[in-house]
């Protein structure tokens, strides 16, 4: 059973009604801020297309499905409120936290490997 960094009563309505997303345990369990976010095209209802990572996950970490889960976008916004202004970006958008400024900035979108 995962022990989340935020409890249910700490989740506030910051980005409601935006559907589901994928996020890694580096955010939800370890409490790290979102360091990389990418929006994939989606045809599934209630799937926002967003995937959120801390940005320091290795490929081995990402290959293990136990290290991520499906969450409401609002939940992840509570871990990193600065993502809320970027959530309307279209599919095929990506943002990375700039090490110098600490701000999320647009980066080149790379389609996932099939």
Automatic annotation (TrEMBL):
Residues 21-105 form the Immunity protein Imm33 domain. It holds the Pfam family Imm33. InterPro entries: Imm33_dom. This is DUF2185 domain-containing protein.
